[in-house]
Amino acid sequence: MPTRININGVITAAADAKISVLDHGLLFGDSVYETLRTYGGKPFLFSRHFGRLEHSARGIDLKLPWTKERTLEEIRRTLIAGECRIRLMITRGIGELEADPETCTDPTPIIIVVPLVTPPERIYQEGVDVVISSVRRSTRFANIKTGSLIHQVLARREAKSKRAYEAILLTADDKLSDGITSNIYLVRNGKVHTPGHDAGIVSGITRGVVLDIAHQVGLQVIEGFFDMSDIARADEMFLTSTTREVVPIARVDGKAVGSGKPGPVTLMLLRGYRSAIERLTTEE
Fold it and tell me: Which of 180, 182, 175 is nearest to 198 (CA)?
């Protein structure tokens, strides 16, 4: 099924989708975005994603052009058959060739829908390799999802060059932050440790669900600052993201985490997350 794109309410195939070269989203990365997926053909946890989009827009003083209801309607109009990956983006719009948002007129809403490619089931059974990136995470605007993604691009290239599934970014003072497009967690003595907001993380939607599940099953969750020595002491590690759910981490920079296999806490949270999907799909 081909990609479908919705720009300002007009749906086209990818080859026919056009934006101005003077759009500040293209020129300066002056945009905000969300990545969603569907379950059963329905956008998952849309309200939570839209709430985060509103937070990001406030962070860069960008007025969203569509209401929550209109945005959901346009996403539904743009969906294709089968499960979908959805990129919702709002750019500053067309302006002058200078980094002045006041030269822009109307923001440009863009929805990109492609077939969802889920990870092979073996990675949940075997775990994945990740590396520590040389790219540092900026903490100043970390919890605002903007189109300025050069750090993620460079970290992805680095991970691919090392044949790693994901890369972990550190803060300027070498504290663990998050993955390229994921949140990370360490398990030690049955307790779940995860970098907190002061470590420059993005508040993941899946992260919130997983931490809720952890609390519900009686696991202690510790949010704060962690470093490389904490990885060495961890019994398990895993990552979460919208499109990948809960993925066990088997090795970091080639060194086994714990036994080097998915651990019991990780697998319990994966099962808990998948069990919660049907209930959570009732949310809008």
Answer: 175
Write the Ramachandran bin of 190: left for phi over 0, alpha for psi from -120 to 50, otherwise beta: left
Residue range 226-242, pLDDT digits in tens: 999 999 999 999 999 99
6: nearest Cα among 94, 72, 101: 72
CA 62 to chain centroid, in Å, comes to 21
The structure tokens listed for 47 are 């309200």
Q: Which two tokens stand for residue 37?
A: 């997926």
**φ/ψ of residue 108, rounded to 5:** -110, 115
